[in-house]
Design a protein that fits this description.
about 300 residues, about 20% helix, globular, binds zinc ion
């Protein structure tokens, strides 16, 4: 199995269009130790020919153009046979609008994500005007072989598991009475395997609560590709960019009590790689102190174009 990191940044990307912070300015200059990054997305394949895109970022057109594995093999058509979404955030779903020519690929998501894209963002009704939209429900806990629009297997299986994060802002407050709360399927992680196999890459680009269920998923995996959005809980507050903390935005911070670094110290086995890194995060600086701190805990930071095999 192979994965290619198409976008290692959180929403906004690096540089973010309206941000003049030192990281964004260094990425614009292109001559320093902060690399430019697209917004959060990966693609996975069992055979190198049929690929499943996981999350469709607003940068998807540039991401596909930069990745030879995803170039068309003939006059029309794409090796991208299906798209799966971990949630309905704009930075994970807006790219669906870019993939409309010829009809959108088969789409795999939870019922809650489908509802958000239908009644909230209204992307799915808009896409229907360009061709049939093939939505296939993902049920948490059930391994699902991913098939293309015509039902042909891709060789990739996804097993979703719910993680506590938060619904996208445009859906906030719609399900206040749901007893499942933040575990209702607004956000999932995926255990990604070849059909019929157990060796998994676990992909979790957004998670707020680091619990025993997540620990068990990660301990079983060959590779953990996980939410590295913020280094500290009050990172945006300190830089004067926002009043929101990491946790109120649905992301466990890397450091501090109950942070991801501490949590991953209790996970033995998988290779540990961070993704969905916000432009404010000091781990973006190659060779910096924050990166060294992660390395001391055996944690890597992904970059665009990085390839993983398992
Ligand atoms: Zn910035």
């Amino acid at each position: 199995m192979r994965a290619i990191i198409l976008g290692s940044s959180a929403g906004g990307g690096l540089p973010q269009w309206n941000c003049g912070c030192p990281h964004c300015n260094a990425a614009r200059a292109g001559d320093g130790d902060v690399r430019a990054r697209h917004q959060s997305s990966i693609c996975v394949s069992a055979d190198g020919e049929r690929w499943v895109l996981i999350n469709a970022s607003p940068d998807v057109r540039s991401q596909l153009a930069a990745t030879p594995e995803l170039w068309p093999r003939g006059t029309r058509g794409s090796p991208v046979r299906a798209v799966a979404l971990t949630n309905a955030d704009i930075d994970h779903a807006a790219g669906l609008l870019v993939l409309r020519e010829g009809g959108a690929p088969a789409l795999y998501c939870t019922a809650r994500v489908e509802e958000a894209l239908t009644d909230g963002l209204r992307i799915l009704p808009a896409l229907e005007a360009y061709g049939a939209v093939h939505v296939r429900r993902v049920e948490p806990g059930v391994a699902t072989p991913v098939r293309d629009r015509d039902g042909v297997p891709t060789g990739v299986s996804l097993r979703a598991f719910t993680v506590a994060s938060k619904p996208p802002p445009y859906m906030a407050g719609r399900h206040r009475d749901d007893p499942r709360g933040d575990l209702a399927g607004d956000t999932v992680g995926f255990a990604i395997t070849a059909d019929g196999r157990d060796e998994a890459l676990v992909y979790v680009p957004g998670v707020r609560d680091l619990d025993d269920a997540l620990r068990a998923e990660l301990c079983r995996a060959r590779c953990a590709l996980i939410d590295g959005t913020f280094f500290t809980d009050d990172e945006l507050v300190v830089m004067g960019a926002s009043l929101k903390t990491s946790r109120t935005m649905g992301h466990a911070p890397l450091t501090g009590p109950g942070g991801l670094v501490e949590f991953l110290d209790g996970v033995a086995g998988p290779r540990k790689v961070l993704i969905h890194i916000n432009n404010s995060n000091p781990v973006l600086r190659d060779g910096g102190a924050a990166r060294a701190e992660l390395a001391a805990h055996g944690i890597d930071v992904s970059h665009d174009g990085m390839q993983l095999r398992w």
